[in-house]
């Protein structure tokens, strides 16, 4: 065989080998590039980013949404290959998903396949009025505002509590929700939580309390809630009001008067306000007001049902968040002179 004929046979084989090597190299590069894509973090700039997948969105639509927001520049084929490899293609759930810094395509697809949608929290604050609760719900993001345009009575009917006055009926706690949930859902849960909590605490209440029903305990707890935010004083405050009820004394609690004043209250309570009769004026009417005056938290409920023993019948704010307690009117007047009028001996 001549040298020329040998070269004629070698070159095609060499070219084929080079072509095969090129294919292998391309495959290796492509696989390595795909692997880097699957474990590399998405382009998430802030902690608050999320992606919202509408019901019925196709897989390609999801990838297009990620690319549109600049979260990924990878080929849609990479996303499809990863989904097939993870056996989640066609199993992704609609919803809103958190995109925390560092989240990878693999983690995101796993969350979407498991339906781990983004949860938000709404906190009902101890001592809010129902009006303040409604206002806060109206500003909660990603929450459907089903109560918009409804009056209080209609809301109570919608949540299955028709005929109940709403004040005090919702337990202050933190409630989780996802996009698409409605404010009535949160109100329904908070109402059920209060019913359960109040029933449990009522069954273990102290004996001989001047409270005939759990609702009366709810009213008293709301007064305690508004009178003090100090954990070490709640039971003492409750004890004062319980003894005044037992002795048939007027409760004379300013927060109840203020609640009865409604929009006419401008930040200061005057002597004329204490003598102007309303259903909530505990300076002019005996016993408890007709409804709670706020949303009491569990600690205030516990204080109302387990008041501290003692003989104090009066208290006055010291101005530092604490109160001075007294068992006689003369002692109370001295405390008022000292802490309110600054005429301390």
Question: Would you give an account of this structure?
Answer:
The protein is mainly alpha-helical and 345 residues long. The protein folds into 3 domains: 40-117, Dna Ligase, domain 1, CATH 3.30.1490; 119-199, no CATH class; 207-339, no CATH class. The protein contains 13 helices and 6 strands. The chain has helices spanning 3-39, 59-68, 76-85, 105-114, 130-138, 152-158, 183-203, 214-227, 234-246, 254-261, 271-275, 298-305, 329-339; strands spanning 50-53, 95-98, 119-123, 174-178, 314-317, 323-326. The strands form 3 sheets. Strands 1-2 form a two-stranded antiparallel sheet. A two-stranded antiparallel ribbon has the order 3-4. Strands 5-6 form a two-stranded antiparallel sheet. Strand 5 (314-317) and strand 6 form a beta hairpin. Helix 8 (214-227) packs across helix 9 (234-246) and helix 9 crosses helix 12. The radius of gyration is 34 Å and the shape is elongated.
């Amino acid at each position: 065989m001549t040298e020329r004929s040998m070269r004629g046979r070698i070159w095609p084989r060499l070219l084929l080998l080079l072509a095969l090597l090129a294919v292998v190299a391309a495959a290796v590069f492509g696989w390595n590039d795909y692997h880097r894509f699957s474990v590399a973090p998405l382009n998430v700039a802030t902690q608050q980013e999320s992606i919202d997948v509408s019901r019925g969105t196709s897989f390609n639509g999801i990838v297009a949404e990620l690319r549109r927001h600049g979260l990924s520049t990878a080929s849609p084929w990479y996303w499809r290959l990863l989904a097939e490899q993870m056996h989640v293609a066609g199993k992704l759930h609609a919803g809103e998903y958190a995109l925390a810094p560092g989240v990878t395509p693999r983690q995101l697809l796993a969350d979407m396949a498991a339906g781990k949608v983004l949860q938000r929290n709404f906190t009902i604050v101890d001592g809010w009025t129902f009006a303040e609760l409604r206002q806060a719900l109206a500003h909660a993001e990603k929450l459907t505002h089903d109560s918009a345009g409804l009056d209080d009575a209609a809301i109570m009917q919608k949540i299955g509590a028709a005929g109940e006055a709403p004040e005090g009926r919702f337990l202050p706690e933190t409630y989780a929700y996802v996009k698409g949930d409605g404010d009535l859902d949160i109100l329904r849960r908070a109402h059920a939580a209060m019913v359960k909590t109040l029933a449990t605490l009522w069954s273990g209440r102290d004996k001989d309390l001047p409270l005939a029903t759990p609702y009366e305990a709810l009213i008293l707890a709301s007064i305690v809630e508004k009178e003090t935010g100090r954990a070490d004083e709640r039971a003492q405050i409750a004890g004062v009001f319980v003894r005044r009820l037992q002795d048939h004394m007027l409760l004379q609690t300013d927060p109840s008067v203020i609640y009865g004043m409604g929009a006419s209250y401008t930040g200061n309570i005057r002597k004329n306000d204490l003598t102007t009769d309303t259903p909530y004026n505990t300076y002019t009417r005996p016993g408890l007001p007709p409804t709670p005056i706020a949303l009491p938290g569990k600690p205030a409920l516990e204080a109302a049902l387990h008041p501290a023993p003692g003989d104090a019948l009066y208290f006055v704010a010291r101005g530092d968040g604490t109160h001075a307690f007294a068992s006689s009117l003369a002692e109370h007047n001295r405390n008022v002179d000292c802490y309110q009028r600054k005429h301390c001996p």
